[in-house]
Amino acid sequence: MSDQERPPEFKPYHHPAAGWGAAKSVTGFLIREGELIAGPRAILKMNHENGGFDCPGCAWPDDTKGLHLDICENGIKHVTWEMTRKRVGREFFAAHTVSELSGWSDTELESQGRLTEPMRYDAATDRYVPISWPDAFALVGDTLRGLDSPDQAAYYTSGRLGNEATFLYQLMARELGTNNLPDCSNMCHEASGRALQAALGTGKGTVDLKDWEHADALFILGVNAASNAPRMLTALAEAYRRGARIVHVNPLIEAAATRTIIPHDFARMATFRATRTGTLNLQPRIGGDMALIRGMAKATMEQATTDPGALDLTFIERHTTGFEEYRALCEATSWEEIEHQSGVSVADIRAAARIYRDADRSIASWCLGVTQHEHGVDTVREIVNLLLLRGNLGREGAGPSPVRGHSNVQGNRTCGIDHRPDAAFLDRLGEVCGITPPRHHGLDTVGTIEAMHRGDVTVFVGMGGNFVLAAPDTPYTSAALRKCALTVQVSTKLNRSHLVHGEQALILPCLGRTEKDEQRAGVQATSVEDAMSMVHLSTGMKRPASAHLLSEPAIIAGMARAALPDSATPWEAYVEDYDRIRDTMSQVLDGFEDFNRRVRQPLGFRIRQPARELVFHTASGRAEFSTAALPDVIPAPGTLALGTMRSHDQWNTTIYSDNDRYRGVKNLRTLIFMNAEDMRERGLAEFDEADITSIAKDGTTRSLQRYKVIPYDIPRGCAAGYMPEMNVLCAIGDYSTQSDQPIMKHLKVTVERSA
Question: What is the pLDDT of residues 268-277, one digit of tens each?
Fold first, then answer.
């Protein structure tokens, strides 16, 4: 079908030398139909002026060699989106009711610009009206003090919150008496943390960027790096050039798995010459990653019968437990079952295993394509099993490396955002801060939504993000928020969560990462932790969008003082000088000793990872093999396994446009990607409209109507589409019993032609 024959709302992007849905990846600059965004200049200027600006996009580490052009297209979009000159003030809210705004698209809402002053919802006029900061804090404080129990409030955290604000936020919640600290990790990498903690005694990956530079083989699972972690493409391209083997495991072959142009390679960028980023692509069925990894482990053990070097038996004997049980499990798992459940041929699995065997040092890296399943914890543990077989831990160029998608989501967890805190952390927090923290577990994201729906949680505070769109079962989540007595959203821009609110509601606008944060002691810097445990400072240099904006630490301290008027915590002093927060953090948090000095070193400092040093804080004191049975991931007859994902022109719930350049889509988001054979089986042709119905664990159904069907290279029985639109299909009860994560990547659906 030619471009002229396609519907006007759906037009593929064609890059020279690129086919349908396979545009080249240009990681340094946003190139969209001849347009060059001027964002790189602003980012480079901030980096040059202070040496410490951190992009509020993904959590990929900064280049260790001081590369100044270590930027990416999505980072540019994210920063320029925040630096817009458009403003949303009292005049805007006076002109538009909440009911009217509820009919706007999410892109229209956010594109109105930066919020400029605190606002309160007025039910009589159905509008947000101005409120002073003291009155806003008083409303929060009075409401919190009036609760029958501190557990009637929940404090949500998005990954944008810096470490210092994170520490104050959890301190406020715990001084108030609750561990209700849901966060975005509950929906993304909770499975990774629980699996790594059980296997290695740490909830994080063990590798750093230098390890990526020395690995002989890289196994990339369930990651769309071109859109979700674009700066990873530099590492992949450089690894390929030096001869490393790169295996991509994903139901969809994404742009990052083929080739890229990196921005600091000026000659190649100027001539659009790409570097390959992969040597082998494996396309398992949705949920089939665990069977594929089991097959690689089985093949590696089979190689060991004639090749003594295939297994590192010395490492296994000295540092692990459970190996014999795992070997027996692999032997008992038939190749027929592995091939059937993975959807990958035995020959291809053996080819990947041969790459693994031939590499002296291997890294396994994964993202939400692995974790957002019922068996996400078991899959991550299976990845660790494979790494342990050849001693790929505790040495340069080897180990597990989960990819975090938010700029500081890992730092949030490190600095205390955890609804299941351990006793040692609470002991130190109580001793250093002079409080009595609660010991019972709090609520995670799904638990908070269910509690709001029951009426057990009546106050919701959101620090950043767009909770109602990020969460599963959108109508259910919306109804839950509307049952609250008070909802508080700390935000930079207008979004859907401001329109889905409680009986009383506040919008509290905060400074963005790009803006200068000036307090009594001078301009302040905030710290963040990247996906590889490096902690460094970030200092904004732009004039704030409004004189009425407060920093996140100042907003948290204002709420805390209003809710805890007799608190001995020096909230005001903390806000005057963030060094004081860091001094306290250094006494509470493991690995943050001498925080203020170390964080000011070039590139900051890396939090010590005991497992990297082969010190395992597990029950056995060793790395532990797991022996989980393979799950049955084959869709029932007539159903498909559907995974939700971002488009390229999107960052989390922020949608910059309706385009998805790397997948060949323009001006369309209400779509479903399907295998061509599955389409023919249902009598569907390209661009036909179809109704998608999900079948929840409890048998209930949820539907989306008139989504355009797009053929795509995806395994039979699988389909994909965009979040947050498709979050409506994930029932609130469809979460993993292993991790409590919503199973956004493994929804059971039927697809039928629209009436």
Answer: 544 566 788 8
| Statement: residue 329 has pLDDT above 90 | yes
Instruction: Please say whether the beta carbons of 607 and 591 come within 8 A.
Output: yes
HSE at residue 26, side-chain half, CA atoms within 13 A, is 19
Residue type, 110: E
Q: What angle do CA 93, 94, 99 make, to 5 degrees?
A: 65
The DSSP result for 178-202, as a single string, is -----BGGGGTTHHHHHHHHHHHS-
Where does the pLDDT of residue 26 fall: very low under 50, low under 70, confident under 90, or very high at 90 and above? very low
Render 330-360 in DSSP notation, one character per residue: HHHS-HHHHHHHH-S-HHHHHHHHHHHHH-S
Helix 335-342 × helix 346-358 angle, to 10° = 100
Residue 603, judged by CB atoms within 10 A of its CB (0-12, 13-18, 19+), counts as middle
Mean pLDDT over the full length of the chain = 90
Q: Quick one: pLDDT band at residue 59, thresholds 50, 70, 90? A: confident
Render pLDDT for 35-56 as a digit per residue (tens, 0 to 9).
333 444 455 445 544 446 667 7
- Sort strands 245-249 and 217-221 into parallel, antiparallel or unpaired: parallel
pLDDT digits over 334-382, tens only? 999 999 999 999 999 999 999 999 999 999 999 999 999 999 999 999 9
Q: Are 149 and 451 in contact (CB under 8 A)?
A: no
* Cβ proximity of 656 and 618 under 8 Å: no
CA 282, 284, 289, 292 torsion-angle sign: negative
Which residues face 321 on adjacent strands?
624
Give the model's pLDDT for residue 34.
31
Report the first-to-last Cα separation within the chain, whole angstroms. Answer: 24
Strands 689-695 and 701-711: antiparallel
DSSP one-letter code for 671: E
Name the amino acid, one letter, at 150. Answer: P
**What is the spatial distance between Cα 116 and Cα 113, in angstroms, rounded to a whole number?**
9
Structure tokens at 251: 């139901």
Residue 401: what residue type? S
Contact 414, 420 (CB under 8 A): no
DSSP symbol at 636: P
The whole-angstrom separation of Cα 27 and Cα 40 is: 11
DSSP string, 578-618: HHHHHHHHHHHSTT-TTHHHHTTSTT-EE---GGGGT---S
Residues 6+ apart with CB under 8 A from 566: none
Given a contact cutoff of 8 angstroms between Cβ atoms, the answer to whether 289 and 369 are in contact is yes
Grade residue 3 by pLDDT with cuts at 50, 70 and 90: very low
Strands 605-606 and 534-538: antiparallel
**CA–CA separation, 460 and 458 (whole Å):** 7
Statement: the pTM of the whole predicted model exceeds 0.90: yes
The CA distance from 510 to 503, in Å, is 23
Spatial distance between the Cα atoms of 610 and 705, rounded to a whole number of angstroms: 50
CA dist list (Å): 710 to 656, 667, 680: 21, 13, 12
Please report the pLDDT score of residue 33 as a whole number: 30
pLDDT grade, residue 67 (50/70/90)? low
DSSP secondary structure code for residue 424 in this structure: H
Q: How far apart are CA 143 and CA 137, in angstroms?
A: 10
Among all chains, which residue has been given the structure tokens 């053996």? 350
Q: What is the reported pLDDT for 5?
A: 38
Specify the 3-state DSSP secondary structure of 432.
helix
Length reported for the chain: 755
Q: What angle do CA 241, 246, 252 make, to 5 degrees?
A: 125
Residue 350 has what pLDDT? 98
Question: 602: buried, middle or exposed (CB in 10 Å: 19+, 13-18, 0-12)?
Answer: exposed
